[in-house]
Specification:
Helix content: 10-25%
Distance between the termini: 6 Å
Number of strands: 14
Low-confidence stretches: none
CATH class: Alpha Beta
Radius of gyration: 17 Å
Strand order of the largest sheet: 6-5-4-3-2-1-14
Oligomer: single chain
CATH topology: Metallo-beta-lactamase, Chain A
CATH superfamily: Ribonuclease Z/Hydroxyacylglutathione hydrolase-like
Largest sheet: 7 strands, mixed
């Protein structure tokens, strides 16, 4: 499986509008972060996790030309507002793209993007999609097996996903015991980590490292990173097997 980090930033992105901090003004390209999204390419399928507001630009930069399905973690703006750009992919495929998420996420997607699901004029102005509710049961996207991972984002139940030996857990403040069991034996764990200080709805660096120590994946990448974390500075302090991801990073995983 080929994995591309399309974006690795928080809801503000980096640089943050109006901010002149050292990270926002950094010349290091690894400190430039569009909103978080992931592209997974297996032998069977091309799968995207979340459609960030910069999804069109991310897809062009990565060479993403075909999408067999989108796995949505939750319906917050930084994870879904590239939704309309799916129309290029559905038009190219000449069929609907399946979208997966829990009941709340799918319901909110259909509300936020009601124009897509409303019967109006025909034409190329809307993406062709099919919404599918998933919870904790294994499902398949064109032959690729996907395991939803229920997690908590503040008080909001959302989903992470596991495909093979890779798991993607972004906006998360708590992982229930049953979900921890689904994260055993990983080759790659991707975790959303926003800052050093505690946060009410996200993991901070210390919490994430404790989780890594508990799960012991072969390799961990932090994503959903704010401007409060400088790439090189934090990377130098992280233990072996833990790194910050960055926009455009490509890895391979079974």
């Amino acid at each position: 499986m080929e994995v591309t980090f399309l974006g690795t930033g928080t809801s503000h992105g980096v640089p943050v509008i109006g901010c002149s901090c050292a990270v926002c003004t950094s010349l290091n390209p690894k400190n430039k972060r569009t909103r978080s999204s992931l592209w997974l390419k297996t032998k069977e399928a091309s799968i995207v996790i979340d459609t960030a507001p910069e999804f069109r630009l991310q897809a062009l930069e990565a060479g993403l030309k075909h999408v067999d399905g989108v796995l949505y973690t939750h319906c917050h703006a930084d994870h879904v507002f590239g939704f309309d750009d799916l129309r290029a992919f559905s038009r190219g495929a000449k069929k609907s793209i399946p979208l997966y998420g829990n009941k709340t996420t799918i319901s909110e997607l259909r509300e936020v993007f009601a124009y897509v699901f409303r019967k109006t004029q025909k034409g190329g102005g809307k993406p062709r999609v099919e919404t599918i509710i998933v919870d904790k049961d294994l499902f398949q996207v064109k032959g690729a097996r996907v395991q939803p991972i229920p997690v908590i984002h503040g008080r909001l139940p959302i989903l992470g996903y596991r495909l093979g030996q890779l798991a993607y857990i972004t906006d998360c403040s708590y992982i229930p015991p049953a979900s921890l069991e689904l994260l055993q034996g990983l080759q790659v764990l991707v975790l959303g980590v926003v800052r050093y200080e505690a946060h009410p709805t996200h993991l901070n660096v210390e919490q994430a490292l404790r989780l890594v120590d508990k799960l012991r994946p072969r390799q961990t990448y932090f994503t959903h990173i704010s401007h409060l974390l400088e790439h090189d500075k934090l990377n130098k302090t992280l233990p072996f097997g833990v790194k910050l991801a960055y926009d455009g990073l490509q890895i391979h995983c079974a």
